[in-house]
Amino acid sequence: AAAELGPYRHYMQKEIFEQPRAVGDTIDGIESIEPELFGDDAAKIFKDIDNILILACGTSYYAGLTAKYWIESIAKIAVNVEIASEYRYRDSVPNPKSLVITISQSGETADTLAALKHARTLGMENTLTICNVQTSAMVRECKLNFITHAGVEIGVASTKAFTTQLVGLFLLALTIAKVKGRLNDVQENQYIKQLRHLPTAIGAVLALEPQIIGWADRFANKENALFLGRGMHYPIAMEGALKLKEISYIHAEAYPAGELKHGPLALVTEQMPVVTIAPNDELLEKLKSNMQEVSARGGELYVFADSDSKIKASEGMHLIHMPEHYGKLSPILHTIPLQLLSYHTAVARGTDVDKPRNLAKSVTVE
Ligand code: G6P
After folding, report:
1. CA-CA distance, 79 to 6, in Å (whole number)?
2. What is the ipTM of this complex?
3. Which of 306, 304, 312, 313 minimizes the C-alpha distance to 341?
4. Which atom of ligand 1 is nearest to the CA of 112?
């Protein structure tokens, strides 16, 4: 195993650093947006659908939540995202014109498979999976698929599977938009260019590791943490909080920053680190006033800001500059430092990073 790990201490760290390769392999050979990326019948199915239902668990569920922002803004189709174990047991209103999407690293998660079957029982036959395992039950059960090329993921906490799922989902948003006549050639070429540059952009974010280790040492003796994001970065905040819980056993919660005043602000003291995702987007000014609310209560902010966002470090506000603002694909880049933060916090606390207590890589029973 030592040889396999190379310079890395754990599989999780190795897998975090594999992301430029994993993302590169996932988009390899894609020169233009074509429905066939998702299967032979994709063009016809995408033309017919008027709604999307995404079903998934864990980290894959957060990929689904991120995709909702992309699909609704680029393809203009309404998206519902549900936790698979909840969907299968509630009365819902089926729409035969829905595209049912499952997202799963393993393709074997029992709850997600059962939710898919439930949707089918309700008469929804248009099914697609974003999956990392070509030979899995999920791929067999769905009409359409997109295989991510993360490669085998060993660390229980998902890293490269998540970012490659996001790439697949972004491609899906573009493809549905194109089929529906909502994507012009100029936009298509721009997005493809951005996707192609992603491995390099991720590489630049990985180079922030030494600064993040400095933060992790300060997190190691905390028992609670809050993660803030807005818009399409809110699901990324949720994923950051989940990662920290899973491997460092620090209790962490994510909030959309505008919701602070409706509850979590009561928890903010000097003991509460508040990790903030602060991309330079149209919500930045709003976010800055949310950060002000935290500072005013003595909360300690740890901010990932884009280099052009003009946020400055100050007393009680630690700052790491992200190399570049990445537009609609920014959630993918902002995931990376959160992975590194939870990884190094867990290492500092001495937990079993690759095999956290009570958790399994793939949950094939209910
Ligand atoms: C388990 C894993 C998570 C994963 C979830 C869903 O809880 O520990 O990392 O996100 O299952 O797994 P899937 O294979 O369906 O993506």
Report:
1. 42
2. 0.97
3. 304
4. 15
What does the pLDDT average to over 344-351? 97
Burial of 187 (0-12, 13-18, 19+ CB in 10 A): middle
State whether the beta carbon of 83 lies less than 6 angstroms from ligand 1: no
pLDDT in tens, 217-256: 999 999 999 999 999 999 999 999 999 999 999 999 999 9
Q: Is the CB of 109 under 6 A from ligand 1?
A: yes
Cβ of residue 228 lying under 6 Å from some atom of ligand 1:
no
Do 23 and 205 form a contact (C-beta atoms < 8 A)? Answer: no
Q: What distance in Å separates the CA atoms of residue 227 and residue 291, rounded to the nearest whole number?
A: 12
Strand locations in the chain, DSSP E?
51-56, 78-83, 98-104, 127-131, 144-147, 224-229, 251-256, 273-278, 300-306, 317-322
Whether residue 58 has its Cβ less than 6 Å from ligand 1: yes
Q: Which of 143, 180, 288, 361 is catalytic?
A: 361
Ligand 1: residue whose CA is nearest its atom 3: 58
Q: How far is CA 43 from CA 40, 53, 178, 247, in A?
A: 8, 18, 10, 41
The percentage of residues in the chain with a pLDDT greater than 70, rounded to a whole number, is 99
Tokens for 269? 């003291």
CA of 234 to the centre of ligand 1 (A): 19
361 is catalytic: yes
Partner residues linked to 278 by β-bridges: 305
CA distance 330 to 197: 12
* pTM of this structure: 0.97
Ligand 1 centre to CA of 105 (Å) is 7
